[in-house]
Amino acid sequence: MAVQNRIRKVQKRDRSLVPFDQGRIVNAILRAARSVGGFALDYLPGVNDRLFQACGDDEHLAEFLSDIVVATLNRDPRHWIANFPPSIEEIQDTVVHVLRSFGLVTVADAYECWRWGKYWIRAGELPEERFVGNGYPTPWHEEILAWNRAHGCHTVEGLNEIVRSGRLPELIVAATEVYERSLDEAAEKILARAETGDLRMIWISGPSSSGKTTTTVKLTQRLEREGLSFLMLNLDDYFWPVVEHPTDWLNDRNFETPEALDIQTINRHLRALLAGETIEKPIYSFKEGTHVGTRPVRLRKDQILLLDCLHGFYPPLTAGIPKEAMFRIYIEAANMLFEGDGTQERLTQFTDVRLLRRMLRDAQHRNHPPLQTLLHWHYVRAGELFSIIPLMGLADHWINGGMPFDLPVLKPFFLPDGIWPSPEDLAPYSSFLDARIRYRRISDLLGQLAGLTIWEAQDLNLIPGDHLVREFIGGSTLKIPHNE
């Protein structure tokens, strides 16, 4: 359709001006959609069904969305002046806003991951050959899917059959062996690097609730048995005081962005530790929301610095630190599971499993109501798509923290009598589209799953006490620092 457009120029990143070309917006949106199998993955009756009915195929839908982007950009009369056109970044921000406003969450995620991956390439922080596109699926994910196919747990129906037939214990053992073997491989790589004498720092990074903490504990145990010594630095102590974090209309704060941390001080302290200096590490009180003191910390020559951090790959954190001094592990809960019987080849979402994990952990150990975690999740995704997932290609080793049996184990804690919010709980937030979409999608998924009973999930004979999933469902025999 025709829309008014008075914008004639676009400001490039080098500040030069070029003619405005709406076709480039159409192509970018269409490329993001095709990278995840088309817009249909985001089709939701009652949310965007009229949009799909009106536009028909993906090409026409991308054209319509580009019209909305153009109309939105034209809202600012400054953009009508040749010397003050929208920048490429403003246009990309508007594309994300439009996609999310129509509930096209999966396409928006793909667009953002691709966008920020290219940003890090231009910044010289990510080699082109390590670019992971939209972050999903990668060859690594295909390997995981192939394993799941071989074990009959690659579809919801297949997983249900395993649960109902009593074969879940065998699946738990087999999947756990894969995870533990991956830890062994990581340990071998680290030991090989340590022999060179260059290794001084290990980062374990990945999206929220992917299993970083348990992985850090178990990997440390392996390496300490081989004679390595570690200094663990808790980067949570570097959060800015809570008064410096503005609240939104829900009185929520965004602690998920790397800028929630004092990046410059972290970097300065890391470089000082590697130089053998003593730092005054801040002590942060989450109860008071501010720093309450400092303590001296020094890295001995025989120690390796160990850091478990969401944003461990974020380049400003390690600016000036030689790459050969670092070993980086990326962990993701890569639950490769097709909906239904798999004939539609629609994968369930990794982020949904991690959201359930975090809901449970927040409720048990942080006194955060599940609804609050759901309403906060858009902040989590924004941070992941900027400084975590696009940089996964920098990892020296990847670990899958997702288990093919996650959902049956998690279900009894949520439904039918668990902590999953009711529709009435969510009703006051009807305009919060991101939360509504995730709520509906996860509710439908949980309804299709055959779950364990709460007593089975708590059985240490079925799921060992040192298992990664116990970081979230409770009963861990490991000391989980964040859950203390």
* CATH architecture name of the largest domain: 3-Layer(aba) Sandwich
By DSSP (H or I, 4+ residues per run), the number of helices equals 17
> Mind telling me the C-alpha Rg?
23 Å
Residue fraction in strands: 5-15%
CATH homologous superfamily (4th level) name of the largest domain = P-loop containing nucleotide triphosphate hydrolases
N-to-C order of helices and strands? EEHHHHHHHHEHEHEEEEHHEHHHHH
Strand arrangement across the biggest beta sheet: 4-7-3-8-9
- The CATH topology of the largest domain is Rossmann fold
Secondary-structure blueprint:
Elements: E1 9-11, E2 17-19, H1 22-35, H2 49-55, H3 58-73, H4 88-101, H5 105-122, H6 139-150, H7 156-164, H8 168-195, E3 201-205, H9 212-225, E4 229-232, H10 263-274, E5 278-285, E6 290-298, E7 303-308, E8 326-332, H11 350-365, H12 370-387, E9 397-400, H13 406-410, H14 423-426, H15 433-448, H16 454-457, H17 470-473
Parallel strand pairs: 3-7, 3-8, 4-7, 8-9
Antiparallel strand pairs: 1-2, 5-6
